[in-house]
Each structure stands twice: as structure tokens, then as C-alpha cells.
Amino acid sequence: METIIQILARELDRPDQHIENIITLLDEGNTVPFIARYRKELHGAMDDQLIRQLADRLQYLRNLQDRRDEVKQSIENQGKLTEELSAAIDSAATLAEVEDLYRPYKQKRRTRATMAREKGLEPLALLAYAQGPSVDMEAAAQDFIDPEKGVETVEDALQGASDIIAEIISDDADLRKMLRELYWLRASIVSRAAAKEPEDSVYRLYYEFSSPLSKTQGHQVLAMNRGEREEILKVSVEMDRETALVALRRRVVPGRAAMEFVKTAAEDAYDRLIAPSLEREARSELTERASEGAIGQFALNLKPLLMQPPVKGFVTMGLDPGYRMGCKVAVVDPTGKVLDTTVVYPTHGERGKNEAIDKLAVLIKKHKVAHIAIGNGTASRETEQMAVELIRKAGDGKVSYAMVNEAGASVYSASKLAAEEFPDFDVNLRSAVSIARRLQDPLAELVKIDPKSIGVGQYQHDMPQARLGEALDGVVEDCVNAVGVDVNTASAPLLTRVAGLNGTTAKNIVKYREDNGPFTTRKQILKVPKLGPKAFEQCAGFLRVPESNSPLDNTAVHPESYGAAEKLLALCGHSMADVTAGKLGDLKGQLAAYGQEKAAAECGVGVPTLLDVAAELAKPGRDPRDELPAPVLRTDVLDMKDLKPGMELKGTVRNVIDFGAFVDIGVHQDGLVHISQICGRYIKHPSEVLSVGDVVTVWVKEVDEKKKRISLTMRRDKL
Description:
Layout: H1 4-12, H2 16-27, H3 32-38, H4 40-43, H5 48-77, H6 83-91, H7 95-102, H8 112-118, H9 122-129, H10 137-142, H11 154-170, H12 173-186, E1 188-193, E2 208-212, H13 218-229, E3 233-238, H14 241-252, H15 259-306, E4 316-320, E5 327-332, E6 338-344, H16 349-367, E7 371-375, H17 380-394, E8 400-404, H18 409-413, H19 416-421, H20 427-440, H21 442-446, H22 465-483, E9 485-486, H23 492-496, H24 503-516, H25 533-539, E10 543-544, H26 562-571, H27 576-581, H28 587-594, H29 596-603, H30 607-618, E11 648-657, E12 660-664, E13 671-674, E14 695-704, E15 709-713
Parallel strand pairs: 4-7, 7-8, 9-10, 13-15
Antiparallel strand pairs: 1-2, 1-3, 4-5, 5-6, 11-12, 11-14, 12-13, 14-15
Helix pairs in contact: 1-2, 2-5, 5-7, 7-12, 8-11, 9-11, 11-15, 12-14, 13-15, 14-15, 15-22, 16-17, 26-29, 29-30
């Protein structure tokens, strides 16, 4: 039997030793970001995503082994565990297979077969089910008539025997496995409208829908599930009964003493016990696969959203649009500190708009605002038009605006965290601050919000919430640690996402710097209460201390590799002063000329670590987000009526879903690029080509103003 290490090595196509090393590191309490970044020699430079995949699979395999042990112990306690059964349980590859093997020995509620056994009819059932010469069942049943036990007639005896055989057949693990596989090959999921004359709805595609189980897309499964919950759809799994019965009879009936009798019992077993169970299993499996796919896509969308390049170093005005309550305004300085707030009413007629422009123009000149961030929710269209007029009047050609995804801003503004951060601000004004900060540093602001509320997924409220939260938290953690965190300016929520830190130690770091002033070295972090050596080992490389005299404290070089960094500089003829002055030249080329293997041996580290150290020394304080496409900043606005087929536009990808991508092209409504319109080659999923935040060139295919739908293409040849 394969060990867990061997299974993972085979599935991930990695050496056994690398898998064993990662398992050991995880069991020792090391975090995924720390393992991925600072233990590359032990696992061959696997990335954080693959290590998380390994950790998830490891947990499943360990749970599977625990369940195998529980099942074997339960059967052993019944005195029925054989070597053959034990081996079958040990070789079961899934929890479903283990449960199939356990089914005959599991304590059942009272069934028809249970009651038949209580009436003493099991010998009759076994006589019929035995391999051997034929038997006259009616004659044999005469001996089992017993009115005291409720067996009044031959028919009663035969019915009871049939019920027992049906349960025996239903409990056959090999048979269930065979039929389960047949279902996935031949069965279809079918959806119909619940009403005879259904109204038009978002589920209209599923009023008459059928798809083979193996070919059904995840978004289709989730849509049908939701439609069923809302009682708009009726959904079922349909399998050709005769096809299943032929396979069942071949396995069960031949050679039995009472073949016709067993054949009838087998059909009853299929109709009453097996088919309903397999349908439930199929629906459950489809939903689980769809959920995992949707969670994976959500995570895939979330990462580029969090890693959007920040618009640093500028005073920014945040606008949270609204109708009745007006447009909330907040001006923040380059560090995110609030300078001013107000409320204007640009949607309250021409007079209200002009007053809003005059009021905001004063704020722009007073605080030297460079950028305006506009939330993309209710009334954003009117607010955007007002902002364009404002820029023309007060911008002097130096002010631009960007539409910002405001998903989750209202959740944050009403949260306990926002109340602690802005106790004197109205809830609505807090959201304007959040919108402004999202443009300045998306990651630092979005970490304050539950990832499920950020709005870059499909059917996120239909997912298993614990699993979704776990996956998205992993993405946030990876992003935060990839960028690094300034220990002297980071909020407690941002620090909480740093590897090795938790809510308590994050708050303690903030309190320590409030009480003692800014940190001046990384080592000083060890003085924070409840932050011990293990936590320091995990977090130190991800925390930056710009105020330190050592440039290494403002890089991703781990303190354990400081000695190696100094030796590397000496080998290449440099000093730490050259790092500060940015005078290292082509350090990578110098290292190659010296010899990477030789240098690594002299520095006392592996080649992967040495290369990482060299990259950090070459660009101390580097932000990986700066290398990505900058957000689209606009000075003018388009209306949907301005769009014409064939028009070329620049846009930002806002969401990637199974059937395409939504792109912000500067009008109130995002346009859809269908998967067939993304590129000239076949792709299974849009994420193979696009990510959230990508800046793309698109052409307008079709505009439906009535339904507010914009169809776009990224293929000029498809116009």
C-alpha cells in the first residue's frame, strides 16, 4: 500500500524527499509563506499555492486514514473483520469507498430487511441467493410461515426474503462502485421549470436543460442548485434504468439458486435503495466539484485584485456615490490620513450638481488633490459625470479619476474595526475614506474586509463558507507576505495577515510602537509582548523597517541570512553602503561570473536562497506590485449611448468567470467578453488568459441599452 508521502509525490509529481520535508515543516508549525520563501532548498522551490494544495490534500489523506482505522475497529468489535476486508479498507482511495465497505456492518435504522430478519426469514433469503442448483421458492417458503412472527402467508415470507436480498445487493461495495462509475459515464443532470408557465427569469436557460454528468460545468450546477432552492427549478439526475439493470443483473443474478426471484429483488434494490442513493451522491459530488472550482476561481480573481499596483504618494479624494443620502467625500493624504470630509448632492438637480462642483473644487485646491477615486455602486454614473466637469473646472490638467470597486466598503464602514479606526466619523463617511485608500494601496485597505465580501467570485454565498474562508484567507496571507509590511505604519488587520502573527501579537506590535516610538531594527520586534522566537522566525522576513540603519531590515532577506548577504557582498567587492546607495551594478551578473554554486557554499546557504538574497540586495525596498500594469486613470467619461459597434477601447478586467470576463470600459455598465471572444485559440477557462486588474484592449460588438448589456470582443477579427 502506498504511503501518504508516496501518494502526494505521485499526484504532485515531486520527489518523495521534498514532500516529506514539507510535511515535517508543516507539522512543526511553520507557515506556508515562510516555507515557500525561506526553505526552498528543502522542497525544490515549490510556490505557496502548491504547498497549500499539498497541505489540503495531506489533511484529506490523514482524515481518510483515521476513518479507515475507525471502520476497521468497529468491524473488529463485531468480530467480523477478515484479512481480506481489512486489506480492502486499507486500499480504499476515497472516503466514499470506505463507507461502501462499511455499509454492511454499520448500525442501521429499522429497515424492511431488518424487520424481515427479525421474522426469521434470513435463511430463506440466503437459500435463494446462494450459488448452486435451482430451488422452488414457494415450496421453500412454506417452512417459514409463522403467524406469531407476522408471516401469515407464502407471499409474506417471499416478500421478506426479497427485502433481505435487496439490502444485501445494495450493500455490495464492488457493485456500488461499478454502478457509480456507470452513472458518471451515462447519467445526465436534468433541470425543468417548476411552474407550468414560468415567468422570464435569470434561470430561463435551465427551464429545459439536460447535460451529461461528466460534462456539466460548475457554474451550471451552482445555478441549478440555487434555482431549486428558490423553487423555480426542479432538478434530478436521470439514468437509463434498463442500462443500469443490465449491468446489475450481470453482476448479481447468474448462477443463483432462484434466478428469477433474485432478478426481481435486484430490480427492487436498484429502484428503492441504490438509484436514489446514487442520485444523491452524484448531486453532492457535482456540487462539491463546482464549489471547489468556484472557490479556486474566486481565489484566482482575488489575488490580482489584492496585488493591484498602488497609486502612491498623492493626495486622494474618495467619493462614495449615493442618491438620497448624497455623495460622501473624504480627502486623505499620501499616507491615508484623513484631511477633510463632507457630503455633496450632485444627483439633486442641476443646482445640487453645481454646488457639489464648487464645494469639491475648493477642497481640491486647498489640499492639492491629484486623484479622485469613485466607488462604482449606486449613483456612480452621475457622480462620474460630475467628477469630469469638476476636473475641467478645477483640475488644471493635473487631476484624474479612477473607478474603484467598492464591494465590501459598506461592510467595512459598519464594522467594529472601522468604528475603532474612525470613532468620530459617520458610517457613510468611513466608506469614502476606504474608497480613497483603495486607490492608494488596495492591499492595505482590502485586508480589512472579509474576502467573501470583495465581490470577484461566482455564487460565493452558496459555497461551504468555512472552506471558502480558508481558501481566501490563504490568498490574502500570500499576497501580504509577497509584498511585505512596514512594521511602523501597518494597521493591526494588515499585521494579522503576516505569517506567524495573530490578532493578539498584531495589536501588541501597534501598541508597542505607540508606547515606544517607531521600530528601528528588526531585532526590536522580539521585545513585543507574546511575540516569541518561533513567531519572530516566521514573521521577521515579511516585516520591513525602513527606519533601520541596516538596509537589510527593509528587504525580504531573513535575519537568519544576514551573514550570507554580507559574505555575498564581500565576494563581489561591495559593502553595505553600496546597497544603501544603489551602487551594486549588475550583481546577478557578478554572481554568475563568480559561480553560483561556489558562492552559495562559501556563504553557507543553498543556491535558491542566495539568488533571492542577491535579488533583494539589488532592489532593497522593492514592491513587486510596481512591476504590474498601473490602474487606468481617466479625465473624461463615456455614456452607453456613445458606444458603437467596432469602437476600440481600453478597459480593466473586473471579474473573471467560467464563461468570460467583465471589463470596465469607462461606462457605468461593465461589458462582457465571452470566452469565445478572448483569443484566437481554444481555452478551457478565461483565467488561462486573463486576470482581475489586467488592462486590455477591447472592441464593442453589440450594445443593448434597454437591457443594459454590452458585448465586447478582444478579437478584432470577430467584428
